Amino acid sequence: MDRNRKLILDDGTEFYGSGFGGTKDPVCEVVFNTSMAGYQEILSDPSYTDQAVVMSYPLIGNYGITNEDFESRVIAPSALIIRDLNEAPSNFRSALPISQLLEEHDVPGICDVDTRKLVRHIRDHGSCRVLVTDAATSVQEGLDIIRKTPERHDAVRRRSCAKKWYARTSNPEFQVVAVDCGMKSILCGC
């Protein structure tokens, strides 16, 4: 693949890779996940709103995307960063490859990234913001974009239910209230 995309961290560090999925150039917090499986659940987990998720496990996409395994109705991360992209899923339940899901939701993905080095950088230097952009963007341009992009603080409002939802029980003696701060759709009617 053509190494046509890159990450510019807010400390000026660059990581090059190949783009897939959406075409936006988001500025967001970069975080990592060490799961060996469950990339679809991670993509649909509201707790990853406004974040670029680095998958530390090297091969992503090998079992595709299934209609039954979403955690919510939204694709929450602003970007997905991986080492190796598998575009030929081997799973009888697979409905589409991961790149098609990201493209449909305009979430950019970048593969062929040295994710081990990136995870170590995050571990050693702490939380940082990142710009996912074209490989031709200079570091200075990228840092200016990061600096000028305000941090979002409204993720809970954007990912929470907009209406009250009631779960009926056979024993109405007790009432339980759940405050939605990104509750998964398995648990709520959102």
What percent of the residues sit in helical stretches (DSSP H or I)?
A: 10-25%
Please report the distance between the alpha carbons of the first and last residues.
Answer: 38 Å
In the CATH hierarchy, what is the class? Alpha Beta
Order of helices and strands: EEEHEEEEHEHEHH
CATH topology term: Glucose Oxidase, domain 1
Q: Calculate Rg over CA atoms.
A: 18 Å
CATH architecture descriptor name: 3-Layer(bba) Sandwich
Q: Uncertain regions: pLDDT < 50 for 5+ in a row?
A: none
The average pLDDT value, as a whole number, equals: 90
CATH homologous superfamily caption = Carbamoyl-phosphate synthase small subunit, N-terminal domain
Large-scale geometry: globular
Tally the beta strands: 9
Reading side by side through the largest sheet, how are the strands ordered? 1-2-8-6-4-3-9
Tally of distinct domains: 1
Helix and strand content put the structural class at: alpha/beta
Write a concise keyword list for the protein shown above.
single chain; 190 residues; Glucose Oxidase, domain 1; seven-stranded mixed barrel; 5 helices; globular
Q: How would you describe this protein?
A:
The chain is α/β, with parallel strands linked by helices and 190 residues long. It has 5 helices and 9 strands. The strands form 2 sheets. The protein has a 7-stranded mixed β-barrel with strand order 1-2-8-6-4-3-9. It has a two-stranded parallel ribbon with strand order 5-7. The longest helix is centred in the middle third of the chain and has 11 residues, at 115-125.
